[in-house]
C-alpha cells in the first residue's frame, strides 16, 4: 500500500482543488490457474467444479479485502477525495493498461525484484511504463524491500 499512500501524499495533495480529485483503485485478479495435479501412478488429478468454485470465491474475497483496505486508507487520509474501485479478472498488465485509457496518471508499486527475477517473471510496472498512454509513476518501497504488494493503485485527477 506504499504506492497508494505516496500517491495520496504527493499527487492528490498537490492537485487539491474543487472538485476534489478522484482516485481509482484497480485490482487485477489473475485468472484461475488450471492445475493437473500428479497422483501416484503417473495419472493426473483434475479438481472438481466445487474445488474450482471455492478457489474463485477465495480469490474474490481476497480481492475485496485488498480493495476495502485501500479504500479505508484513502478515506482516512483524505475524506474529500472521491474513491472509485475496479476489480477485474485478467492479466494485471492488460487490466492496468486498459484502465489507464481513462486516466490522467497511473501510480503503481514495484515488487523490487532484481534483474534475474524480472527476467524470469516479467515486470508489470515495466510493461505499463511502455504501453500506457498516460504518465506512469512507479513507486519503490523506501526500504528497498521486495515484499509483494497485492494492490496496484491508480489515480485519475479530475479536471486535467
UniProtKB/TrEMBL annotation:
Tell me what this protein is called. Answer: UspA domain-containing protein
Specify the signal sequence span.
1-17
Give start and end of each UspA domain: 9-140
The answer to whether keyword Calcium applies is no
Arranged from A to Z, the UniProt key words for this protein are: Signal
What superkingdom does the record give? Eukaryota
Instruction: Supply the Pfam families for this chain.
Output: Usp
Amino acid at each position: 500500500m506504499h504506492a497508494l499512500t505516496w500517491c495520496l501524499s504527493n499527487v492528490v495533495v498537490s492537485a487539491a482543488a474543487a472538485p476534489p480529485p478522484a482516485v481509482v483503485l484497480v485490482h487485477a485478479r489473475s485468472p484461475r490457474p488450471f492445475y493437473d495435479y500428479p497422483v501416484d501412478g503417473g495419472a493426473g488429478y483434475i479438481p472438481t467444479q466445487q474445488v474450482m468454485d471455492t478457489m474463485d470465491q477465495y480469490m474474490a474475497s481476497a480481492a475485496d479485502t485488498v480493495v476495502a483496505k485501500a479504500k479505508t486508507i484513502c478515506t482516512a487520509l483524505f475524506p474529500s477525495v472521491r474513491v472509485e474501485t475496479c476489480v477485474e479478472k485478467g492479466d494485471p498488465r492488460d487490466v492496468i493498461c486498459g484502465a489507464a485509457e481513462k486516466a490522467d496518471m497511473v501510480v503503481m508499486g514495484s515488487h523490487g525484484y532484481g534483474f534475474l527475477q524480472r527476467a524470469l517473471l516479467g515486470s508489470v510496472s515495466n510493461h505499463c511504463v511502455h504501453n500506457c498512454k498516460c504518465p506512469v509513476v512507479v513507486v519503490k518501497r523506501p526500504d528497498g524491500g521486495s515484499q509483494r504488494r497485492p494492490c496496484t493503485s491508480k489515480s485519475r485527477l479530475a479536471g486535467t
